[in-house]
Design a protein that fits this description.
single chain; mainly beta; Jelly Rolls
């Protein structure tokens, strides 16, 4: 690091920092920090505020805080508009949703079954609800006399968010090896005050994964691939599990990591 000792202002003024307001200096209004020849920096200060705003390009580390050993502690990512924390660079406003079920009995082999978010049902056990037998779950679901049964399977998205990861653990109740597929979907849910409020449409695959050789003697853990990550406030999330092999009951816990935009 250089020193100004013994050097004249004429030879060092470019390396000196000052505020842009040369009349008032630091005041109640934010003034940009510049070097001695007037080149603007990304910082502005006042007597109460500090503002950081890129001058030329957004970056993934507009503001970076590191430990002495250079481990990342905090990064402000203006490219993706997110604040990340820790050595894992996890978004600071990350949230976790869980979908889980015990002894979920598929209505048929190869049928996509809703996985509940976890609830206490008073008076009766939660009812299994299916949504398709194709390669993927159906992209819509009309209301009916049993619409109330799939309410506990939906997660209403509160604000625009990004899906960062999806992982599930699964087992079954017999010794027979099975193939288990999991899909995470988002849907538009009708909410217009009509008699068919709750109708699901515009289903979009967010994440999917497959576990093989699943039986009661093991717990398989699978990290799903992310197919689409953006979800919008007002949409709902749903998780589906499919036993390709038979109708053996399924034990499953799905964890979804996401952050607010």
């Amino acid at each position: 690091m250089g020193s100004l000792s013994g050097k004249s202002p004429a030879s060092t003024y470019k390396s000196l920092l000052k505020v842009g307001d040369e009349t008032n200096g630091i005041s109640t209004s934010a003034s940009q920090i510049e070097d001695g020849e007037g080149t603007a920096s990304c910082l502005s200060i006042s007597d109460d505020t500090l503002v950081l705003k890129p001058q030329n390009d957004n970056t993934t580390s507009a503001l970076s805080v590191k430990a002495k050993d250079n481990t990342q502690i905090l990064a402000v990512d203006t490219t993706n508009e997110v604040v990340k924390v820790g050595s894992t660079a996890t978004p600071a406003n990350s949230q976790i949703i869980e979908f889980r079920a015990e002894n979920l009995v598929p209505s048929g082999a190869g049928t996509h079954m809703f996985v509940p978010r976890g609830t206490t049902a008073f008076g009766l056990a939660p009812s299994e609800v299916s949504n398709g037998t194709g390669t993927d779950p159906e992209t819509s679901l009309a209301t009916s006399a049993t619409t109330d049964d799939f309410l506990v399977n939906l997660y209403p998205v509160p604000v625009n968010s990004t899906i960062d990861a999806c992982k599930f653990m699964v087992s079954t109740i017999t010794d027979t090896d099975t193939v288990i597929n999991v899909h995470l979907y988002k849907y538009t849910i009708k909410s217009t005050g009509a008699t068919n409020d709750g109708t699901l449409s515009a289903g979009t695959l967010l994440a999917s994964g497959q576990a093989t050789a699943v039986d009661r003697n093991c717990i398989k853990t699978v990290t799903c691939s992310i197919d689409s990550s953006a979800v919008t406030a007002g949409e709902v999330l749903a998780c589906f599990v499919e036993n390709e092999t038979n109708t053996d009951a399924i034990m499953i816990n799905t964890q979804v990591l996401y952050h607010f935009n």
